[in-house]
Amino acid sequence: MENLVEQSKKLTSILATNRTENIGMDVWDEFVVPRYFDKYDFFSTMPCKIEGGRGCGKTMLLRYLSYQSQFSKKRKIVKDDDLKNIGLYWRADTQFLRQLDKRGISEDFWAKTFIHYFSLKVTIEIFKAIDFIARTSKQFEHFSKILITELCIYDESLDGELSTVKDNLERLRKKFELAISNPLLLEKVIFFPFDFVKSVNEEIQDKIPELKDTNFHVFIDEYENLLKYQQIIVNTSVKHSEPPVIFKIACKKNGMPFIETTGDEAIVLKHDFVAHDLDDYISKEYNVFASEVLFSRLAKAGGENNSICLSNIDSLHERRKDEYTRAILNKVRKMLPGKKQNDLASDIFIKPVLRTKLENMLTQALDKKREKQLIFSDFIRDDAKEASIVCVALLNRKSTDPTELLHLLDLHIAGAKTPFNEWISTNFIGCYLNIIKRKRDENRLYCGFDTFISLSQGNLRHFLELCRTAFSVGFHYDNSEFVISEEFQSFSASQTSAILFDEIKSFKPYGAALHIFANRLGELFTLHQSRESQSEPEKNHFSITGGSTSLTSKEKLLLNECEKWGVLSKVIATKTKTRQVINDYDWVLNPIYAPRFGISYRKKRKITFSNLDIQSLFSDDISDYEELYESHKILGSGTNNLVKDKNNPIKETPFNSGDIQKDLFDV
User: Fold this and answer.
1) Average pLDDT taken over every residue of the chain
2) Percent of the chain surpassing pLDDT 90
3) Residue 189 to residue 176: CA distance in whole angstroms
4) Where does residue 373 rank: exposed (0-12), middle (13-18), buried (19+ CB within 10 A)?
5) Coil, strand or helix at 91
6) pLDDT in tens, 285-308
7) What's this model's pTM, rounded to 2 decimal places?
8) Which of 140, 279, 444, 573 is at a distance of 20 to 30 A from 94, taking alpha carbons?
9) 48 with 42: CB under 8 angstroms?
């Protein structure tokens, strides 16, 4: 085996290629067939919308469905019935298509130019597909002698051998692009109608018998980046799709804002197209799928081998067996070991700097209560580490009596039924983060395969980036298998979180506003997390009083952009503790940003914001946000917002807060 330095370089390089655009069009040997793949017919004659967040695998899926991968030279077997459906992938050149707008020219004229360009691109891909299949799979007898004769009515150069016509179509495309850069040349362009695509297919199916029953599926990637009038034209193509050419679009969440067509009718879900939510599909067995993707990448570095061909749909049956699932999860958990809650507690007790911090926090809590009889060591028990750590929060609650708490701690250690089990479940993570917050390099909350899965939340790109950074720091071998230490994983989580958070600024066109919003939201969650009493721990999501209908169009747009780019995810709202709050959705900050703020990635508690609060979070006026921040600071300090719960002497209850998600272990 290579030395560790060379192996590390190779692994880092391979894992760094986590964007499909860096792989190319033929993704056959890179693609891991998703576990949902055989449950949905992406080659149905029904048009479809394939949607999902960044990193869910949309582009990889579309390129796997394209002819370059369908008929890849890397495939050992190409079935005879593969010609029934041929995929064509088109990702619009956004920079070029945005030139087809304004400049003193009417939108109707630009619509004609887009239809012409769209028709050219689709047709060119059809010709390229035929040429590619003929060369790679040796199909289409007498391919070189096939003559195209009926297209010369559109342009006299479109007459002759198939390869010649293909080349001339490319020349027409280049001339058109040149004319767009020099608008005076547009006067000489003869614009093709969309029926040009139909004419092409009629002649091809007439001249090539093998394609008589073939359907061409045009997958349009990043549809959301098209201009409105361009989307409307594509909508029209989708609505009126019929064999042999079927149009299908792929976009991010909220990436299809318009339902208009060029006619009087709108494009309607289910009637005109079906929707495939890849985020939903992939969430079912995301942990298994992510581990398969990781091992497929490691195999290319010579480190891991898999006897199953993960790019072949026929392997799904074997991959769904329980023994396979257990084996691959056990393997990846050994590679990326994590820490359980009791391990985190042991770290606090074992590491001198953390134990000292625990002792100091207990002392400060007792001093605030002016406790004279008990000292910090009374609450530090080696046989109840988690309970000892939770005592930090409990002693900071106004209603807590130290003597009574110590009595309950003794009973808990003796095995009696006490509230400690619920307190540990509810408060431990918050207490751990408070102890560790000034020693972030000692934080081990964000390590382990299962934690990486939670942090990446269905985003394979984020998962692979976490792994890439971890491998780049270092690894060792255990029985010839890769193992990454908790320390390296923790460093990776911190670094990756910071980099991806900074990336928000690049999310056009509202990246700056989204970055400000996410930073302010994280600051508020951090503020609540640092609350000494930890009566409302692990806040990392919010709801809106009155629901999203209470917002202005600007805030609605920006929240939709947050969801579109994966800064937030939207889920059906949970209950609150007051009936006066009307919620339609909860908005969850992407867990990948949790290490950056030092907060929990688990969805536990929420803050309820008013519509004015949301405006403040997005506002360009920093004073609006500062006022909101100070109000939460006062709330967190416990000033005038606490009442005693007579049924439990060791409990802190928010007064008129209406902002807490009821949890199974709330006490």
Assistant:
1) 87
2) 68
3) 7
4) exposed
5) strand
6) 999 999 999 998 888 766 556 678
7) 0.86
8) 279
9) yes
